[in-house]
Amino acid sequence: MTLLETLPLAMLGALFGLDVVSFPQVMVSRPIVAATVAGAFIGNPPGGLLIGVVLEMIALDTLPFGAARYPEWGSAGVVGGALFAAQPAGMPGALPACVLATLLTASISGWSMVVLRRLIAVRLERSRDQLEEGSRRALMLFHLSGMSMDLLRAALVTTLAMLIFAPLVKAIVAIWGSESAASRAVVVVVVAIVAGAALWKVFHSVRYVLWFLLAGLLAWLVLLVKP
Amino acid sequence: MTTPSESGFALPLRIKLAMFFRLLALQGSWNYETLNGTGIGFAMEPALSRLPGGRDGPAYRAALARQSRYFNTHPYLAGVAAGALSRAELEGVDATRIERFRTALPGPLGSVGDRLVWASWLPFSSLIGIAVYGFGGSPLAVVGTFLLLYNAGHLALRAWALHIGLSRGLNVASALGNPVFRQGPQYIGCAAALAAGIALPLALERITGPGKALAGGIVAASIIGILILAALRERAEGWRIALGVLAVFVLYSVLT
């Protein structure tokens, strides 16, 4: 993948990365959306959706409480969706390799947000006197430049991740040694564990929650045995 | 067009709309010094421009400086603060009282917002999107359902927050006792648990594909894993464990 080829994805990653915190937080940055849209960009929306759902279940473990540090799923979702959608159908290593590449991107992108926030704080020191004087111009410049830097950050993360992981995932998939069913099963088990435990962490204090979960499982069993 | 609210306080619609859209960008300059303080100043600026003397007046500059200092709250409920503080500034409330209010409000707003949005509405919407996928929904259906459902709640909450802030001014505390905030997380949590019971197995079944040979092993391993990880609670981050396990598996599959 060339730098030019990553450009549309970088723009998408920038917009979805911006949505995580800066603007407008309508959750297009959730992997279920970001990966599906990236898959559609590559010409394979169902592929993007599949990895999007896998990543969404993992993302249930990283809800953005307060000022906590968490993975950045906007640009990472775009990277994951594009990587997986570009793989030929039926390749056993595609899903595990792409999920791994996405998790690494999300982690690094989360760290880049921390760096950005520190940079903004440094800029704040420089503008402090003007802000304390109530300068409208200083406030607008400070705020809008923070958003622009975030947009640039997400574009850079997406570009670098695509340039590194596109050839790497291709090479991994080509020499993959595990069989198809086992490869899928490992991903499914990992995702089930992370999502199940994450939901328990969030909802365990809700009254009667276990009964509702059991009712849901019962409904699933009914659907399962229905001819 | 000016729309009157409680106690005769009114702001032109274009100012309210400007505040609403700026609140969507509240965290654009989020940093570890002022958190979303400069964002609050940015969002309130259109209302503050109506202070005596306009944008060049000393009242405007003093208010903008005051409102751009440290502040930390939930972004979706920040409208309560931005609205209430704008009204207080425009009604000439004493600066000391405004400062006290700015100190007291963020905690309750943050706590209520975290419980209702991040710990309830977002996972619930996610699970509904996952359920649509599990039932065989198309990419458009899955993404559309998730975005429409989530943002119906999200945008309504933001609009309510700004409205309540502007209409009640510094007397917004009682609004946080709204039944939606008290009972909402309980009801949404139950609905999310019901959705999880159906959505997760259906979606995982679709991801696994047609082969059922490993189904028993997958279910057993998943249940054991969930019980162990749930018992560890805050001591273990699931996504980091996923990263580690997948890294080992990929390495193993490449080397064998």
State the gist of this model.
Chain A contains eight helices and no strands.
Keywords, please?
heterodimer, A: 227 residues, 78% helix, B: 256 residues, mainly alpha, 10 helices, 2% strand
Structure description:
The complex is a heterodimer of chains A (227) and B (256). Chain A has 227 residues and is an all-alpha fold. Chain A has eight helices and no strands. Chain A has helices at residues 3-21, 31-42, 45-59, 73-85, 94-132, 136-174, 180-203, 209-225. The radius of gyration of chain A is 20 Å and the shape is globular. Chain B contains ten helices and two strands. In chain B, a hairpin with a 5-residue loop joins strand 1 and strand 2 (10-12). In chain B, helix 2 runs antiparallel to helix 3 (58-67), helix 6 (106-134) runs antiparallel to helix 7 (139-168) and helix 6 (106-134) packs parallel to helix 8. Chain B is elongated and about 75 Å long. At the A-B interface, helix 2, helix 3, helix 5, helix 6 and helix 7 of A face helix 2, helix 3, helix 6, helix 7 and helix 8 of B.
